[in-house]
Automatic annotation (TrEMBL):
Residues 73-345 form the Sugar phosphate transporter domain. The chain crosses the membrane at residues 91-110, 130-150, 183-202, 246-265, 277-297, 330-349. It is found in: Membrane. GO terms for cellular component: membrane. Its main location: membrane. It is a multi-pass membrane protein. This is Sugar phosphate transporter domain-containing protein. The lineage of its organism: Eukaryota, Cryptophyceae, Cryptomonadales, Hemiselmidaceae, Hemiselmis. It comes from the Eukaryota. InterPro entries: EmrE-like, Sugar_P_trans_dom, TPT_transporter.
Length: 370
């Protein structure tokens, strides 16, 4: 019977195994480096594709916020300027109440379908949202008081200082990227365009200027606090919407009672179907506008968000001339053209900054310690 002789097992060589492991680690690192963002091994075509993808991801939230914001202004203007409303009745408080009720109503389907698990009221989360809601209340109230004291064109001029203020705050206090010269130029063009459009309606009113100062300050602080809440991830989007609406109702309900909101509800029952549908649609649009605002703040900077809000006045003004028979003159048209140029300069400046960030080589690694 043949017996096969067992071959002696070779001893392992630690040096060879280490060399093979190092060899495979090199290829693994090269593969990871090739797929890393901003890699030197990425071709120019890949960089351009990544840049266009990032631009698209930034354009979607901006377009969503711009469209919902424009619709909100136009729909509210339709309700507040309707000729079918009885004299002495204002729908401003009813609009705000309805929009906040819709914001609270989102909680129930979110709870039923398991999208959110938070309680209807939690003291800690409510206190976290209190500063943001208080700033929002100051912003709304100061805006109404400034309209009482100043002409609308003058208010547009002063409100356009908000984008510059937010840009400087992000740069100086939040240690963000310094604004480029073209960004500052676009904001200056926006202010000049609003000033030219309002040159015939400029007026000096100390009380109105104080209310506008409070409005711009509360607008900037409201945006910064909201962005901080999102960066810290203290609350979800639904929680921010929920507690903001709850706090707003606390001061809207007594204001509505003092203004005779029950007469407004009686007048609403006698309005046309179109009027009712437009007013009810503002509640749904307020939810979409809030989500678009959060989305825009997550994907872009605060200066971009506020600049989009300022540029919204241009299509709104054009719609006013077309649909609401607003008076137009040469100064208004020249101001709109200057504002459009400012918007184009701002867009090109932001695209240039993004392209520069994607095509710049990554910074060299720090020297190793000896």
């Amino acid at each position: 019977m043949l017996r096969f002789r067992k071959r002696p097992r070779r001893k392992s060589f630690p040096v060879r195994e280490r060399l093979w492991a190092s060899f495979t680690d090199v290829f693994t690192s090269l593969a990871a480096l090739e797929h890393a963002p901003g890699s030197l091994m990425r071709t120019k075509r890949d960089q351009d594709a990544l840049f266009m993808r990032q631009v698209w991801n930034g354009c979607l939230p901006v377009l969503a916020y711009a469209s919902t914001s424009i619709y909100m202004v136009v729909s509210q203007a339709y309700v507040l300027r309707s000729k079918t409303v009885k004299k002495g009745i204002s729908y401003s408080t009813l609009l705000l109440l309805w929009q906040n009720v819709c914001g609270i109503a989102v909680y129930f389907p979110a709870k039923i379908f398991g999208w959110e698990t938070f309680a209807f009221y939690e003291h800690k989360q409510a206190m976290t949202m209190l500063p943001n809601s208080a700033l929002f209340a100051v912003m709304v109230y100061s805006s109404a008081q400034s309209i009482r004291c100043l002409q609308v064109p003058m208010i547009s001029v002063l409100k356009n200082f908000a984008p510059i203020t937010i840009t400087l705050v992000e740069w100086l206090l939040m240690k963000g990227r310094p604004p480029s010269g073209n960004v500052l130029l676009s904001m200056a063009l926006l202010i000049v365009g609003a000033f030219v459009a309002a040159v015939n309606d400029l007026s000096f009113n100390r009380e109105g200027y104080m209310w506008m100062l409070a409005n711009v300050a509360s607008n900037v602080l409201h945006l910064l606090v909201l962005r901080k809440l999102k960066l810290n991830k203290d609350l979800s989007n639904t929680q921010i919407l929920h507690y903001s609406a709850l706090w707003s109702l606390l001061w809207l309900i007594p204001v509505g009672i003092c203004e005779g909101i029950f007469k407004t509800v009686e007048d609403f029952a006698t309005q046309t179907l179109t009027f009712k549908l437009v007013l009810l649609s503002t509640g749904v649009n307020s939810i979409l506008m809030f989500l678009a605002t959060i989305w825009c703040l997550e994907r872009t900077s605060g200066s971009t968000y506020s600049m989009v809000g300022a540029l919204n006045k241009i299509p709104i003004a054009l719609m006013g001339y077309i649909f609401f028979n607003a008076p137009a003159n040469v100064n208004n048209l020249v101001g709109i053209c200057i504002g459009l140029i400012g918007g184009i300069v701002f867009t090109l400046a932001k695209l240039s900054e993004m392209r520069k960030g994607y095509h710049e080589p990554p910074p060299p690694p720090p020297p190793a310690r000896r």
